[in-house]
Write a structure and sequence with these properties.
Elements: E1 9-10, E2 13-14, H1 19-29, H2 44-76, H3 82-89, H4 93-120
Antiparallel strand pairs: 1-2
Length: 130
């Protein structure tokens, strides 16, 4: 990274550091840390499903990020063949992973709402501010 921490430039845009994103993805993929809701009987199964949605989302996001990395590396090369561009453009896997990401994030949002409803109706006590 250049001095000053601005990141390198691609197509006139400054690259942001991806390390925090990777750390989050790695933490999600390895399982969540029990929090205020862990061990609450009414939420136990829902939390397992939420963890699954988080893991599946992280895997899909990693696949999309890998595709973007390949695309970036290709366009930054000094010489690129038309077949290479066409091959990358024709990869169906990234579209499938984007669809999986969308489905998992939708499911995650729905389940988080269900957990919030359960907590709000007093079915579960959590620490203030949690």
């Amino acid at each position: 990274m250049p001095a000053g921490g601005g990141g390198r430039k691609l197509f006139g845009m400054t690259e942001r550091r991806s390390a925090p994103r990777r750390r989050l993805r790695d933490r999600i993929a390895s399982g969540t840390t029990p929090g205020a809701l862990a061990g609450k009987g009414e939420l136990r199964n829902l939390l397992l499903l939420i963890e699954d949605d988080l893991r599946e989302s992280a895997l899909a996001l990693a696949a999309v990020e890998a595709y973007l990395g390949r695309a970036r590396a290709l366009v930054e090369r000094p010489a690129v063949a038309a077949t290479e561009l066409s091959q990358l453009a024709g990869e169906e896997g990234v579209v499938e992973r984007l669809e999986a990401l969308r489905e998992n994030v939708d499911s995650l949002r729905r389940r988080m709402g269900q957990a919030g409803t359960t907590v709000a109706r007093g079915g579960v006590r959590v620490h203030p501010g949690a």
